Amino acid sequence: MRTTLHLLAALFSLFLMTPPALAQGKPTRLVTFDYPPFMVAGRAGQLSGLMIDVVTEAFKRMGQPVRIEFYPFSRSLAMVEAGEADAMFTIKKTPQREAHYLFPKEPVLTQHYVFFVRSNSTLEFRGKLTDFADTTIGVQDNTSYGGIFDAAVKQGVFNQLDSAPNYEINFKKLLVGRVDAVIISQVVGQAIVKRLKAAEQVRVSGPAVETAMSYMMFNNKTQPALISEFDKAIASMRQDGTLSRIQNAYSQ
How far apart are CA 59 and CA 140, in angstroms? Predict the structure, then answer.
């Protein structure tokens, strides 16, 4: 009898330590946005992309059901803020976001941010952001491009930032001359211009502005244990080579 009571007490303690979503088998609601080749929403709601595979595998290892939904970047951010979604990916960690949201320790993606310009443009980035001070630069709404670019924006270095709800619109503006440059992850930019069949009409100007890491970002009501389990899953995927295998599958 005493053994049974001890077992029940241990099981009850384990239940209390388990995040509600895990304890109830409730799917974790994740939101993301069109960001090829990392996150792509195909026809009939079919999802694909490097980060879709990474995140799906991580939650599988956690034993946690998950639901992934696509929305524009700004709406995804608003849904996490309102508690309508549990988390979104991928997103930069900034002091402002850390004050309102919860981040795992493990990044899920590393990206090189560059300027794309038209192929016939004379603009050439040489490592100094002040060289682009008077250039009309296309950016995405509410997006961080890493500490270096974000600090330059805050300091008022750029006179002409042109914001759009997504990168495809930015590149369409670039192609018709409404902006002079677009800052974006190099891999994503290449995927978008390929989608637009405009690869020969644009080029990367100069070196990377910055290499920055992106994360899963949880709303501030998330149980710390859930975030800890996500960290463990990503770390195990890094250690056993799963992350490398997924990345290599998309670099073929």
Answer: 28
Long-range contacts of 147-153 (CB under 8 A, 24+ apart): 147/210, 147/212, 148/209, 148/210, 149/113, 149/183, 149/209, 149/210, 150/94
Name 135's Cβ contacts closer than 8 Å, sequence gap at least 6: 123, 158, 160, 180, 181
Distance of CA 58 to the CA centre of its chain: 15
Task: Tokens for 149, please give them.
Answer: 């670019």
DSSP characters for 91-130?
A: EE--HHHHHHSB--SS-SEEEEEEEEEETT------S-GG
User: Is the model's pLDDT at 51 over the cut of 70?
Assistant: yes
Q: How confident is the model at residue 252 (pLDDT cuts 50, 70, 90)?
A: low
Residues 133-148: pLDDT tens digits? 999 999 999 999 999 9
The pTM of the full predicted model, rounded to 2 decimals, is: 0.81
Across 104-171, where does the E strand assignment appear? Answer: 109-118, 137-140, 161-164
Q: Is 183 within 8 Å of 148 (Cβ atoms)?
A: no
Q: Which residue has the tokens 């389990």?
A: 229
Alpha carbons 91 and 145: distance in angstroms, whole number = 10
- The upper half-sphere exposure of residue 162, i.e. CA atoms within 13 Å in the direction of its Cβ, equals 18
CA–CA separation, 189 and 171 (whole Å): 8
